[in-house]
Structure formats: structure tokens, C-alpha cells
Automatic annotation (TrEMBL), chain A:
<comment type="similarity">
    <text>Belongs to the GatC family.</text>
</comment>
<dbReference type="InterPro" id="IPR036113">
    <property type="entry name" value="Asp/Glu-ADT_sf_sub_c"/>
</dbReference>
<protein>
    <recommendedName>
        <fullName>Aspartyl/glutamyl-tRNA(Asn/Gln) amidotransferase subunit C</fullName>
        <ecNumber>6.3.5.-</ecNumber>
    </recommendedName>
</protein>
<keyword id="KW-0436">Ligase</keyword>
<keyword id="KW-0067">ATP-binding</keyword>
<comment type="function">
    <text>Allows the formation of correctly charged Asn-tRNA(Asn) or Gln-tRNA(Gln) through the transamidation of misacylated Asp-tRNA(Asn) or Glu-tRNA(Gln) in organisms which lack either or both of asparaginyl-tRNA or glutaminyl-tRNA synthetases. The reaction takes place in the presence of glutamine and ATP through an activated phospho-Asp-tRNA(Asn) or phospho-Glu-tRNA(Gln).</text>
</comment>
<dbReference type="Pfam" id="PF02686">
    <property type="entry name" value="GatC"/>
</dbReference>
<keyword id="KW-0648">Protein biosynthesis</keyword>
<comment type="subunit">
    <text>Heterotrimer of A, B and C subunits.</text>
</comment>
Automatic annotation (TrEMBL), chain B:
<dbReference type="InterPro" id="IPR000120">
    <property type="entry name" value="Amidase"/>
</dbReference>
<feature type="domain" description="Amidase">
    <location>
        <begin position="25"/>
        <end position="468"/>
    </location>
</feature>
<keyword id="KW-0547">Nucleotide-binding</keyword>
<dbReference type="Pfam" id="PF01425">
    <property type="entry name" value="Amidase"/>
</dbReference>
<comment type="similarity">
    <text>Belongs to the amidase family. GatA subfamily.</text>
</comment>
<keyword id="KW-0067">ATP-binding</keyword>
<feature type="active site" description="Acyl-ester intermediate">
    <location>
        <position position="178"/>
    </location>
</feature>
<dbReference type="InterPro" id="IPR004412">
    <property type="entry name" value="GatA"/>
</dbReference>
<comment type="function">
    <text>Allows the formation of correctly charged Gln-tRNA(Gln) through the transamidation of misacylated Glu-tRNA(Gln) in organisms which lack glutaminyl-tRNA synthetase. The reaction takes place in the presence of glutamine and ATP through an activated gamma-phospho-Glu-tRNA(Gln).</text>
</comment>
Length: 98, 487
């Protein structure tokens, strides 16, 4: 955490997060998120250099099932949720121009 | 209506067993209550009366065949972030409009096994991000005790429907207090189980290291009964703990003595700015527990004051990753674009509400290059300190008594323009999620404006038995839980 928060570039971070924002939203969020980031600066009061981080309250390990064929989701029910489908596949915009 | 909708799980279970009513009778009564009151309460997003009655008929047949499960034939409302096969699951977001769940969440499968009736889907803050249910994109929910006030959140619909007798019980989820806070605001009982106690498979994830599904009910015993039905190891969830499920309900007896128990009182939990009526009600509850035989000891949770800062870094970071799946490709809403990146940006812009956007952006920022160590890693280290505080505290006591919220339910619109102000309301609930402990909320009084006040009972990991015992003893020797809102 920086000693002094220089402000968040909302437009840039929104682009990283794949969210289009209007100019009004950028301005609104900039003020609100700067306020939040200023608030979390209080963590600088603590010296945690020798403290282990906690990612989960309990130890979490990868869980592997047996390598056996089992039932999967119903194909038709999954396709029914596609916003756009063709021939049993999800349709997406063209990525590479021919 | 025969007033069956006003009864508890245990009361209805007895009636069903004695043949005094059927599950169809109960469902009809609850549906009539929804018809009469939900126009003003607004708890339900979707309701399928025909399906609920069909489930009730099936439950009555199971009972006639000799089954005696305590949840058999009991109608339960479901927070709209739990997948129920064949039903919509919107998380109260426009981005999931049109989505139909192709599978059951594990808790839903367990409820079906237990014979519960899946009544309908109730409102919430979008993707469980909020404390008032005002961030809901698909409905507005009011507090049944005063319709101008918020029901709390994010499980506002789950609490409001139980308080208004529009369901016998409900399921909610708690990431930073989203079961306990609305339960407190609406005068219900809400339990946030220990992390890993209840499977998260089929729960639409907000913050994976914090989320837990739990019950909202009219009494502590009902919560215990519902907990028994939904707890247990699940191979589909890597964070699910392999541990036997205690008979939570059976352990709650008529004995209300707390003799031999030590209950901790953390001075840090009576925060500056706390409503004096809330503080007085909680302190009265502490005295009541002392009169029941408990020894009250002072404990300290010195790092609890950092919980909001830690929570809003960790929760938003995890949310930014979890909500990446909502991209308009495989399900939900899509706004077409000239290429995939254009499609993602437009879809997520149109589909997410402002609070969800805010949190995704904040989470993306704290995980971004150059900021990860400064924000996210540091927050994880302070999380360790918060956990250690609880570990130390539980060396001195069996459970901790505290307020749930600094104030009773506030008026709608009071905090919508100031996100940080609303975030700070979670100061008393978020530490428990960060530590992974269990906690419950139950009514301990009413403010002079007629709104309920909640008492929080916090337990060490997997000590649900203890907090349920304390809560049950307090509840059975007070009358707060017997009061009903006038609708």
C-alpha cells in the first residue's frame, strides 16, 4: 500500500475488468473508490512483516475424484442457456478476420 | 387461513406427525399469506404455487408411507443465488435474466432429500453485494416491521419473508454478515455456520473464502433443525469439511441453564456511534445470560477494527475473479459487439448494477500488478491477526456475546449515495467471516421506533452446538421472538 494514495485510474482498471463505463460512472466511481482506498490505508498502522497470510480460514487442498466416467450436465439444458447458439455450439463474434 | 403460516418448523412438524394438518394445508396457508402481504413486503422474485403444492402432495405421500423427517413438508424460501434445477437463478442481476439452472445446489438436493418444500426464490442485493437489499436489480424489498425501512442485506428477502410469515424458514448466504444482519433487522434468527460446514456447490460465488450458506428462521431450534438438514461433507466442494453432523435440534432441551458456561464480552464491539438503544438491549441480554448462570468474562479483539478494510480488499478481489464468468458468452444476457472484447465490455456494463461494478473494479485494482502485495497480501496478513484474536479469546470463553449491527434498520435511501458509510455497518459481522467461525443472530429487544434489535452469539470453529445452546436458552426465557409485525 502506498504511503500516499495517488488515486485510482478507474477507466484503466475498468478496461482490465472488461466493463465499459460512461464518463459519469468513471467520475462517480473515482470519488467513491478513492474514499474506500483512503480508508484501507489504516492497515499501514500495522507491522505485519513477520505474519503469515491467511487465504482460507481452514486449510484447503485440491480434491481429486477417481478417474471414472460419470454423468455430466444435460447437453440440451446447457445449450438452452446460451445467449446465441448454432448446431449445438455457442456462437461468438468473429475473432480472426479471414 | 388457519394461521399455520405463523407457526415454526418444530410446531408444524408436531402437527404433521399428529395428523392435525397436511403439508398441502401449510403450503396453502403460506401462499395465502404471500398473496396478502408480499405486495407490500416484496420478498419474492419468483413463486410457483402449482409446483409448491405438487411438492407438498409428494411430502404428504412420503409421510403416509412412514417417513418422519423433521423438515418433511415444511415450506422453505430460497435466496436467489442458489441453483435449483429448472428454475431461474438471477442473483437479482440483469446479467442473469433468462438463465435456468441445469442442476441442484448441494443444499437444495439435501432439502429435497429431507422433504422440504422449495417455495420460491427471494430477493437479495445483486450478487450478494450490499447490506440493505437496495442493490437489487429485479425487485424492491421492505422491512415488515416498517415498510419505509430496509430489511437489511444481502439476504433481505430471506429475512423479510420469514418475519412476515410468508415462509416457515429460508436459506440465505453470509459473506460479511448477510444472514445475521438482515435477521437482526427483521427480528428473526440467522445462523452463519463455520466455513466448510455447509457445501457451497451450486451457490453463485461472491467471495469464495468467506461465503457460507445458512438458515433464517423464527426460532433458534428451527435453525438447528434446518442446519441438520443442510450440513455435511460434499465431495463436490473442496472446502467442505469431512465431519459428522451433530443432532443440533435434539440437543436443545427445556433446560435453559447456562451454569458452567463462560461468555465473553469484547469491549471493542461497542463501537463509537453505536445507537444507545442497541447497546442497552445487548447489555441487558448479557445480564440475562448472567442470570441464567453464565459467567461473563471480558475478552479483547483488538484487530476487529481493521476488519472492514481487510474485508473490502479480500472480498472484492475474490469477487473480481468469480464474476469474470459473467461475460455474455455461455449464459445470461448478451449485448453483441464487433469482437469478443467489445461484447464483454458492453454486456458487463449493461448487466451489472453500480455496486457490483464498483466492487469488481476495486477488486481488480487491488490484485493488479504493483498493488497486489500492498493491498491483497497485506489484507491476508491482517486477516491472520483477526483470526488469532478469536483463537486467544476462545481460550477464555465458550462463546462471545456482541451486537450484530450498530443501529436498527435504517430508512430506505439513507445510505445509498455513500458506499463507505454502508460498508462500515458491517464492522461487527465481517470479523467472523474472516476468521471462519460460526455465529448467530437472534432478537434481543426493540428500539423505541418499533424496529427489532439483534444479539450476536459468536462461536469458535465448529462450535455451532454451543452458540445454539446459548441462543436457545436466551430465547426460551425471553419473549422477543414471539412478537410479530403488523402488516
Amino acid at each position: 500500500m502506498s504511503e500516499e494514495n495517488n488515486g485510482i485510474d478507474v477507466g484503466y482498471v475498468a478496461k482490465l475488468a472488461c466493463i465499459d463505463l460512461t464518463e459519469e460512472e468513471k467520475e462517480l466511481f473515482h470519488g467513491q473508490l478513492d474514499q474506500v482506498l483512503h480508508y484501507v490505508e489504516q492497515l499501514n498502522e500495522l507491522d505485519v512483516s513477520d505474519v503469515e497470510p491467511t487465504a482460507h480460514a481452514i486449510p484447503v487442498f485440491n480434491v481429486f475424484r477417481k478417474d471414472e466416467v460419470g454423468t455430466s450436465l444435460n447437453h440440451q439444458e446447457v445449450i438452452a442457456n446460451f445467449p446465441s447458439a448454432a448446431d449445438g455450439h455457442v456462437r461468438v463474434p468473429k475473432i480472426i478476420d479471414q | 387461513m388457519a394461521d399455520l403460516h405463523k407457526l415454526t418448523i418444530s410446531e408444524l412438524s408436531e402437527k404433521l406427525a399428529a395428523g392435525d394438518c397436511t403439508s398441502v394445508d401449510i403450503v396453502n396457508d403460506v401462499l395465502a399469506s404471500i398473496e396478502a402481504n408480499d405486495g407490500s413486503v416484496g420478498a419474492y422474485l419468483t413463486l410457483n404455487a402449482e409446483d409448491a403444492l405438487a411438492q407438498a402432495e409428494a411430502a404428504d405421500e412420503r409421510r403416509a408411507a412412514g417417513e418422519k423427517l423433521p423438515m418433511l413438508g415444511i415450506p422453505v424460501a430460497i435466496k436467489d443465488l442458489l441453483n435449483v434445477k429448472g428454475q431461474p437463478c438471477t442473483c437479482s442481476s440483469k446479467i442473469l435474466e433468462g438463465y435456468t439452472a441445469p442442476y441442484d445446489a448441494t443444499v437444495i438436493a439435501k432439502l429435497r432429500e429431507a422433504g422440504a418444500i422449495l417455495l420460491g426464490r427471494v430477493n437479495m442485493d445483486e450478487f450478494a453485494m450490499g447490506s440493505s437489499t437496495e442493490n437489487a436489480a429485479l425487485g424492491k424489498t421492505s422491512n415488515p416491521w416498517n415498510l419505509d425501512h430496509v430489511p437489511g442485506g444481502s439476504s433481505g428477502g430471506s429475512a423479510a419473508c420469514v418475519a412476515a410469515d410468508e415462509a416457515i424458514a429460508s436459506l440465505g448466504s453470509d459473506t460479511g454478515g448477510s444472514i445475521r444482519q438482515p435477521a437482526a433487522f427483521c427480528g428473526c434468527v440467522g445462523v452463519k455456520p463455520t466455513y466448510g460446514r455447509v457445501s457451497r456447490f451450486g451457490l453463485t460465488a461472491f467471495a469464495s473464502s468467506l461465503d457460507q450458506i445458512g438458515p433464517i428462521t423464527k426460532t433458534v431450534k428451527d435453525s438447528a433443525i434446518l442446519m441438520e438438514a443442510i450440513c455435511g461433507h460434499d465431495p463436490m466442494d473442496s472446502s467442505s469439511i469431512e465431519m459428522d453432523v451433530p443432532a443440533f435440534g435434539e440437543k436443545l432441551t427445556a433446560d435453559t441453564s447456562l451454569a458452567g458456561m463462560k461468555l465473553g464480552l469484547p469491549k471493542e464491539y461497542f463501537v463509537e456511534g453505536m445507537d444507545p438503544e442497541v447497546e442497552q438491549s445487548v447489555r441487558d441480554a448479557v445480564e440475562h445470560c448472567r442470570n441464567l448462570g453464565a459467567e461473563i468474562v471480558d475478552v479483547s479483539l483488538p484487530n476487529a477494527k481493521y476488519a472492514i478494510a481487510v474485508y473490502y480488499i479480500i472480498a472484492t478481489a475474490e469477487a473480481s475473479a468469480n464474476l469474470a464468468r459473467f461475460d455474455g458468452i455461455r449464459y445470461g444476457r448478451r449485448i453483441d459487439g464487433k469482437d469478443p472484447a467489445d461484447l464483454y465490455g458492453k454486456t458487463r456494463s449493461a448487466g451489472f448494477g453500480p455496486e457490483v461494478k464498483r466492487r469488481i473494479i476495486l477488486g481488480t485494482y487491488v490484485l493488479s500488478s504493483g498493488y497486489y502485495d500492498a493491498y491483497y497480501k497485506k489484507a491476508q496478513k491482517v486477516r491472520t491477526l483477526i483470526r488469532n484474536d478469536f483463537t486467544e479469546a476462545f481460550k477464555q470463553c465458550d462463546a462471545i456475546l456482541a451486537p450484530v449491527t450498530p443501529t436498527p434498520a435504517y430508512k430506505k435511501g439513507d445510505k445509498t449515495d455513500d458506499p463507505l458509510k454502508m460498508y462500515l455497518d458491517d464492522i461487527l459481522t465481517t470479523p467472523i467471516n474472516l476468521a471462519g467461525n460460526c455465529a448467530l443472530s437472534l432478537p434481543c429487544g426493540f428500539a423505541s421506533n418499533g424496529l427489532p434489535i439483534g444479539l450476536q452469539i459468536i462461536g469458535d470453529a465448529f462450535q455451532e452446538d454451543t452458540i445454539l445452546k446459548v441462543g436457545h436458552a436466551y430465547e426460551q426465557t425471553t419473549e422477543w421472538h414471539t412478537r410479530k409485525p403488523e402488516l
